[in-house]
Design a protein that fits this description.
The protein is of the alpha+beta class. Helix content is about 50%, strand content about 20%. It has four helices and four strands; from the N terminus they run H-E-E-H-H-H-E-E.
Length: about 140
């Protein structure tokens, strides 16, 4: 006894399979584009000898590229993971500057541009290192 499926059901199955295939292909395209962007970013960082830091205010987590702290003389394994740890290395004047910028950013104060350029001094075991920062 053979069961014949209605034509509409067959059409829906075909459409479902085509949609799934389309989504997989689309995901692969985006993955390839992401990898290309990531490779370009890595090359730019290496070419400019720049370091990158990113702060996530919702959980106070801090990401720093290894180049950032290696340039400042830190061991890559001992880089700060939270903003409060990072701020302990700044000079007192720079801590005030950074706190002012942080407050303006979190309150979305439009009179203070979120883009900033600042030179910070980092203190570490008796030596002072300067670092120019820009961010938004």
């Amino acid at each position: 006894m053979d069961v014949e499926f209605p034509a509409l059901f067959k059409l829906l199955v075909v459409l479902f399979c085509l949609t799934a295939l389309f989504l997989v292909v689309l995901q692969l395209v985006f993955l390839v584009r992401f990898k290309l962007l990531q490779r370009r970013y890595s090359r730019a960082i290496l070419a400019t000898n720049a370091g990158v830091w990113e702060w996530f205010p919702e959980n106070n987590r801090l990401y720093t590229s290894s180049e950032f702290f290696i340039q400042l003389g830190f061991d890559e394994r001992k880089t700060p993971k939270h903003l409060s740890d990072w701020l302990t290395f700044l000079s007192p004047n720079d801590q005030v500057t950074f706190e002012h910028w942080k407050k303006a950013l979190l309150e979305r104060d439009l009179s203070i541009r979120p883009l900033f350029f600042s030179k910070f001094q980092f203190y570490r075991t008796g030596c002072i290192r300067q670092s120019l920062h820009s961010g938004f």
